[in-house]
C-alpha cells in the first residue's frame, strides 16, 4: 500500500488544526500572509507586463 506524501501532510495538518487552537490560529495567519504575498506577486507581474508591452493585462 502506497500512501502519498500529500495525504500524510494533509492528515497531520488537519489533526493539529482540529486539536490545538494555537496551531489553528497560526495556520490561519500563515494562510492570510501567503494570500497577500500572492497578491503582491500578481501586482508585480502586471507592472512588468505593462512595462514590456505598454498595455494593461486583461484576464
Strand tally: 0
| Secondary-structure element series | HH
Helix/strand-derived category reads mainly alpha
Which overall shape is indicated by the principal axes computed on the Cα atoms? elongated
Residue share in β-strands = under 5%
Total discrete domains: 1
Taking pLDDT < 50 over at least 5 consecutive residues as the criterion, the unreliable ranges are: none
Cα gyration radius (Å): 18 Å
Give the fraction of residues assigned to helices: over 70%
Residue-averaged pLDDT: 93
| Main β-sheet description | none
Please, how many helices?
A: 2
Distance between termini? 43 Å
Domain PhoU: 24-48
Pfam families: PhoU
InterPro entries: PhoU-like_sf, PhoU_dom
Protein name: Phosphate transport system regulatory protein PhoU
Structure report:
Helix content is 81%, strand content 0%. It is mainly alpha-helical and 59 residues long. It has one domain. The longest helix is centred in the middle third of the chain and has 33 residues. It starts with a helix and ends in a 6-residue tail after the last helix. This is Phosphate transport system regulatory protein PhoU. It comes from Staphylococcus aureus. InterPro entries: PhoU-like_sf, PhoU_dom.
Question: How do the strands and helices of this protein lay out in sequence?
Answer:
Layout: H1 5-19, H2 21-53
Helix pairs in contact: 1-2
Pfam families: PhoU
Domain PhoU: 24-48
Protein name: Phosphate transport system regulatory protein PhoU
Amino acid at each position: 500500500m502506497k500512501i502519498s506524501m500529500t495525504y500524510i501532510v494533509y492528515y497531520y495538518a488537519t489533526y493539529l488544526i482540529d486539536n490545538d487552537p494555537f496551531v489553528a490560529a497560526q495556520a490561519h495567519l500563515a494562510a492570510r500572509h501567503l494570500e497577500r504575498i500572492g497578491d503582491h506577486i500578481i501586482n508585480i507581474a502586471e507592472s512588468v507586463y505593462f512595462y514590456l508591452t505598454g498595455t494593461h493585462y486583461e484576464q
